[in-house]
Amino acid sequence: MPKALDVWLAKTSEEALNPELPICDPHHHLWDDPANPHAPYTLAELRADTSAGHNVVRTVFVDCMTHYCADGPEELRPVGETAYAREVAEESARTPGAEIAGLVGYADLTLGERVMPVLEAHLEAGGGRFRGVRHSTAWDPSEGIRSYRNPPPGLLLDAMFRQGAACLARLGLSFDALAYHHQLAEVASFARALPDLTVILNHTGIPLGIGPYAGKREEVFRHWRAGMAELAGCENVFVKLGGMGMPSMGFGWHQREAPPTSEELARAKAPYFRACIELFGASRCMFESNFPVDKVSASYTVLWNAFKRVVHDLSPAEKAALFHDAAARAYRLVG
Question: Does residue 1 carry a pLDDT above 60?
């Protein structure tokens, strides 16, 4: 990561709370492209974060448009990312520290049935670690809100997209859903239409706080909670609790002179996380780091301290689910 960020993060330093609690971090990326603003974030940087005090035992890599094949059929080029992530994962298994146990890649689900050979290529390239696909559907009409991959509106309702997603279910793979808070009804419709598909909602459903949503946190929260309540009725849906350090959430932590403490983060995030746990149950919720993207707002140790503060009063079984077991079940991680 950029050295200036490391200097800034060091201004707020904490010891890890409950350092014995096993953690599966189900959402992180890897970048070694110097043109990427989050780079470098390789196994070395990941290990530095995951070994800084918390008991992170395994992780899941999630697609981030890196190391695509330079040639060959366009639809197969993302398989290069899975091959790259597999190499890093195998290295993580040979060395002390958290193992990258699962891989989530990208495949163009709008191919419909024609996506099947792409998924099979991912499975082969993943060497037993490939677990599913993330195809971003996050769309907002506002020009000031940048969407990952810039998808068109309504993808989750598209018949060909759903046909492609059905191929995931047939292969026992999962779907990581990336959508904004005002699209949660679409996610619910998608999940209901594919009850055999495990759907994993990313980043707490992204309650936006910038552009036309700036200064409207209570209104957005009500809209977001109504969408989450509808989505909770879909038993095949899990939720990743995290991603709220992204600037699009509108908290502005990345602009402060010093990073927030875990107490500050916990106060801000608790209404969202506790609502998710209330609606979905701990068995379908999992804390995520979303590193290095969320690293612009807090260090890894402070972030996981905040998560632990939010659920300090829950039972040991609920904490086990939130920090490890729900992720292991959703991504079918053995042991």
Answer: no
Q: For residue 216, count CB atoms less than 10 angstroms from its CB and return exposed for 0-12, middle for 13-18, buried for 19 or more.
A: middle
Q: pLDDT band for position 268 (50/70/90)? A: very high
243: three-class secondary structure by DSSP: coil
Report the distance separating Cα 192 and Cα 187, nearest Å: 9
The two structure tokens encoding residue 327: 């992720």
Percent of the chain with pLDDT over 70: 99
List domains and CATH numbers for the chain: 3-330 (3.20.20.140)
d(CA 297, CA 242): 12
Residue 23's DSSP bridge partners are 56
What single string gives the DSSP state of each residue in 130-160? EEEEE------S-TTSPPTT-PPTTGGG-HH
Tokens of 93: 């298994």
| pLDDT tens per residue across span 237-253 | 999 999 999 999 999 99
The structure's pTM equals 0.97
Handedness of CA 32, 252, 177, 319 (dihedral sign): positive
- Give Cβ neighbours of residue 298 (< 8 Å, ≥ 6 apart): 9, 12, 245, 253, 259, 260, 262, 265, 306
Angle value at C-alpha 201, between 41 and 233, nearest 5 degrees: 165
* Burial degree of 201 (CB within 10 A; 0-12, 13-18, 19+): buried
Note the pLDDT of residue 335. Answer: 62
Structure tokens at 123: 């499975």
Task: For residue 42, give the DSSP letter.
Answer: S
Mean pLDDT of 115-129: 98
Largest CA distance in the chain: 53
Q: What is the pLDDT of residue 255?
A: 96
Element (H, E) at 34: none
SS3 326: helix
| Cβ neighbours around 36 below 10 Å, total | 15
Is residue 253 within 8 A of residue 259, CB to CB? The reply is yes
Taking 3-state DSSP, the helix, strand and coil percentages for the chain, each rounded to the nearest 5, stand at 50, 15, 40
